[in-house]
Amino acid sequence: MVRPRSSDQEALNYVYRLFRYLLDLGEIALGLRFIFKLLGANPGSSFVNFLYGISEPLVSPFRGIFQSTILDIGVAEWASLVAMLTYALLVYLFLRLLRLFGK
Is-annotated flag, keyword Transmembrane (predicted)? Predict the structure, then answer.
């Protein structure tokens, strides 16, 4: 078996770190979105509005899988949790394949 050159390994490590970083950012945004909606955060707040704006494209493909649950204080938006799980799984599988073929 041929081992990748160090520059190839560095490139793989860079891609690995980049995808992990992007996943972390997405998971944080989606997690905050879920918590803010659950606790009934004011969407008129500039930060909450910003957070909803950047996380909406991540959540929209998963709308309609489960209905959101309306609570006394806020909304349990299950699409956010489904998005978090799906993106984590996809990135995990991609990185496993990257490591497998990079060896």
Answer: yes
